[in-house]
Each structure stands twice: as C-alpha cells, then as structure tokens.
C-alpha cells in the first residue's frame, strides 16, 4: 500500500463501516420508480435536486447498485472508496508528470 493509499484509508476508512446518509435515500428510491422504458428515461434524465442532471455519477450508480446489492451499503462504499483512490492516483500522476517530482505528486495527492 502506497503513502497516498494509507492516508486515504486513515482519513476515509471509517466511511466503509457506515450505512447510508440522509440524502442517499432519495437516490436509493429511484429504482422503485422504474416501471418501463419511459419511466427509466424520466428517472435517469429529468432534473432533480435543485435542477441537477447527473445520470451516470448519481442516478445510474444508485439504480445499478440497488439492483445488484439492494441495501447492503458495503459494496457502495467500496466502489466510492476505490473511485477516490483512483482520483488520488490520477492527481499524483498528473502532478508528477508536470513537475518531474515524485514528492510533488505525492503531496498533491495527499493535500
């Protein structure tokens, strides 16, 4: 495990143990609204939550994971944790490439 992974685990590791948060329940209920193709399109693409449309990062994620894992929060949390790890790796890789410094890349991922 690299330094950035250890920092990520130390900061966010407790999040793997938690259940869902208040606003998650609005997204978890979307799957129940899908009855046919038109309702799927409405659920995925109609503006919600202050007019936002984020079909893949929120709606698609919650509909797919609710279908696969129902209300078992751990797979949701593992996927989000892995995504954050990938984000940190990307920040490190881009900074390292721009600066030529491994230390700068590591600090960019940590901070």
In short:
With 111 residues, the chain is mainly alpha-helical.
Tell me about this structure:
This protein is an all-alpha fold. The protein has helices spanning 3-12, 24-28, 37-45, 55-69, 73-99, 102-110. Helix 1 packs antiparallel against helix 5 and helix 5 (73-99) runs antiparallel to helix 6. The longest helix is centred in the C-terminal third of the chain and has 27 residues, at 73-99. The model has no long low-confidence stretch (mean pLDDT 86).
H-E string: HHHHHH
The low-pLDDT segments are none
Please describe the biggest sheet, giving its number of strands, its sense, and whether it closes into a barrel: none
Content of β-strand? under 5%
Number of helical regions: 6
Radius of gyration: 18 Å
The helix/strand class is: mainly alpha
Give the terminus-to-terminus CA distance.
18 Å
Give the overall silhouette.
elongated
User: What is the count of β-strands?
Assistant: 0
Give the assembly state of these chains: single chain
How much helical structure, as a percent, in the residues? Answer: 55-70%
Give the overall average pLDDT.
86
List the helices and strands and how they pair.
Blueprint: H1 3-12, H2 24-28, H3 37-45, H4 55-69, H5 73-99, H6 102-110
List keywords for this structure.
111 residues, mainly alpha, 6 helices, 68% helix
């Amino acid at each position: 495990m690299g330094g950035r992974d250890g920092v990520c685990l130390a900061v966010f590791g407790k999040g793997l143990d938690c259940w869902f948060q208040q606003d998650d329940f609005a997204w978890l209920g979307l799957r129940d609204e899908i009855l046919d193709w038109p309702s799927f399109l409405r659920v995925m693409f109609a503006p919600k939550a202050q007019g936002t449309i984020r079909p893949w990062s929120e709606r698609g994620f919650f509909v797919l994971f609710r279908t696969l894992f129902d209300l078992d929060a751990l797979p949701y949390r593992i996927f989000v944790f892995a995504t954050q790890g990938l984000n940190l790796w990307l920040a490190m890789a881009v900074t390292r490439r721009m600066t030529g410094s491994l230390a700068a890349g590591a600090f960019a991922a940590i901070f």
